[in-house]
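Late entry, evening session. Most of the bench is empty. Finally got around to the prediction I had been postponing all week. Sequence below, unchanged from the version circulated by S.P.
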Amino acid sequence: MGIIMEQAHDKKTQEEKLLEKKELDKKAQEKKAEEKKAQEEKLAEKKAQEKKAYELRAQERREHRKKEQERKAQEKIENEKKAQERKTQERIAHEKKASERKSQGKIEPEKTAYDRVLAARSKDRMTGSDYIYGIFTGFIELHGDRRFADDPAIIGGLAYLGDMPVTVIATEKGRDTKTRIKRNFGTPNPEGYRKALRLMKQAEKFRRPVVCLIDTSGAFCGIGAEERGQGHAIAENLAEMSALKTPVLSILIGEGGSGGALALAVANEVWMLENAVYSVISPEGCANILWRDPDKAPEAAQSLKLTAINAEELGIIDKIIPEGRKSPGKLLSDLKGDIMAWLDKVSHLTTDELAEQRYDRFRKIGA
């Protein structure tokens, strides 16, 4: 009996211990669940804070972006307004100039663009050599590019303008059939442009101003010219002239055809005679490309904006030399006076200022 009671007591004790253990396990699980819940709440709170901070930063970025867009839009409006004002002022100035020229009878407004093309090509028009010997004195022609040969299409050398030594370079078309063939109809080969550049570098070395007189339908496009690097010769002139540290003045006296003319026209100032033309292509070539009809050249000439008045309005040239019904002697005399006045005007500029002014001049074109 005692044994049975003892066994019952032990069983009861074991059950109590088991219950106690279960109770402890339950409390441990509850505690663990509470800790887990607390961690989840803490993590959720942290995520909420991070989300709030991210949204705040995003809001700040949006506001900053909005302000930046508004600033840029305002800046754009102001720039457009300034550009419009500048264009209006330039247009008014050009219109005023044109009106003054017309009222003074300096420019013949009734001529069409193609009339001026024909006038620029006229066989009775003065050529480069006429201007050299009519404006300058003591001209000494220099020959050759020191690489290949001399090019008769470009005349260049030393001369005096008053008592000032200058370097003068001109394209020469010739007067009659014989001289035109000799001068290759005024279309230079690469050696002509290299000769011109050699003379310009020489002028820079001895601090002589350079005056270029341009009358060419374009650079010669023969096979030999291409083999000897026509494109490279023109590009080299453009690059070197832009940095030339001496005054450079280019005057279009007849035709100014494409790169062949531009290779002598990277100057501090570019002038055009009233009946000169300046274009990337001839009217006949343009009409042939666009309409397959060279007879539409007058229409193409009007569209190309190639006259002196057009070029001045576009800011490509700085001055128009009126021709009107002046005698050749009067025209040469007036032009000589204008060149001397311009050289006097730029005489105070340093060599670096001359190069910088020339570079800036061409950077502004089309801007």
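Two things to note before I forget:
The longest strand covers residues 248-257.
The radius of gyration is 41 Å.
Will write this up properly tomorrow.
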